Amino acid sequence: MYKIIVAIDGFSSCGKSTTAKKVAENLGYAYVDTGAMYRAVTLYFIGKHVALTNPREVAQALSDIHISFRRNPQTQVNETYLNGLNVESEIRKMTVSDHVSPVSAIPEVRRAMVAQQKQMGRTKALVMDGRDIGSIVFPEAELKVFMTADPVIRAQRRQAELLAKGEMVELNDILENLKKRDHLDTTRAESPLVQPEDAILLDTSFLTIEEQVELVTGWADARIARLNRLSEAHRKV
Ligand SMILES: Nc1ncnc2c1ncn2[C@@H]1O[C@H](COP(=O)(O)OP(=O)(O)OP(=O)(O)O)[C@@H](O)[C@H]1O
Ligand SMILES: Nc1ccn([C@@H]2O[C@H](COP(=O)(O)O)[C@@H](O)[C@H]2O)c(=O)n1
């Protein structure tokens, strides 16, 4: 069976990781949330008061950081570990959301994360979501999806999620954070968020989670079937 890479990019909180996780499950593929990697770096930088404009401090901090993902046996969900500590819940808090975009715009940070991400994709059978997966990390990905949704709907969904975890945040604060991050992410000099020309656009504003998962899984199945047919035809020649 042909194995592919599914690259999912898009704006903040439009459903990328929720969709990517379920599509990976459906395909029996590994899933990597690259936003979690940038969030873990940010958590470390905040804790160590790393000066973002000091290249030596940034390089030292990056060499001290080890990020990994481990499956929680109870929830079956991949959780993020920073230097051996589970930081899954810490990295989702607003403090990290407020600082992550400037940290992820630093070229040295991107180089370090992209190198690890490329390694993770060397055996394919991977669904990865982020901001530069189809454009920089895996420009050769067999399926690229670019997700978007109305900003107010995105903020409402994120607010409900934070509330369920006991964090009460004003809708407007979330909306401002989303808009600010989208602006920084799309305008930064180093690998900005762009929709690759060969990506399929998916607006989730009026879709249910099940509908968006079904769409992306269907596109992936179609790509795999086509590549299987091509390789079979090639084998027969
Ligand atoms: N179609 C949908 N309908 C309702 N809620 C949704 C839908 N898609 C995603 N959500 C919810 O919206 C929230 C944000 O989704 P998710 O974390 O997947 O977005 P994301 O694009 O990965 O965000 P980020 O870029 O900030 O990591 C989650 O609480 C998720 O359950
Ligand atoms: N490939 C990526 C992924 C993420 N970022 C930055 O991290 C922030 C948090 O990402 P979430 O997916 O958890 O929202 C995001 O706003 C980007 O600044 C990135 O640069 N590249």
UniProtKB/TrEMBL annotation:
Keyword Cell membrane applies: no
InterPro entries: Cytidylate_kin, Cytidylate_kinase_dom, P-loop_NTPase
GO molecular function annotation: kinase activity
Superkingdom, natural source: Bacteria
Metal-binding keyword on record: no
Pfam families with a match to the protein in the record: Cytidylate_kin
Gene3D superfamilies hit by this protein: P-loop containing nucleotide triphosphate hydrolases
Cytidylate kinase domain mapped to chain residues: 6-217
Keywords, sorted A to Z: ATP-binding, Cytoplasm, Kinase, Nucleotide-binding, Transferase
Compartments reported by the entry: Cytoplasm
Record EC number: 2.7.4.25
Residue numbers binding ATP: G10, F11, S12, S13, C14, G15, K16, S17, T18
Substrates-to-products reaction catalysed: CMP + ATP = CDP + ADP; dCMP + ATP = dCDP + ADP
Family statement drawn from the similarity comment of this UniProt entry: Belongs to the cytidylate kinase family. Type 1 subfamily.
HAMAP family for the chain: Cytidyl_kinase_type1
Name of protein: Cytidylate kinase
The organism of origin for this protein: Ravibacter arvi
Gene coding for it: cmk
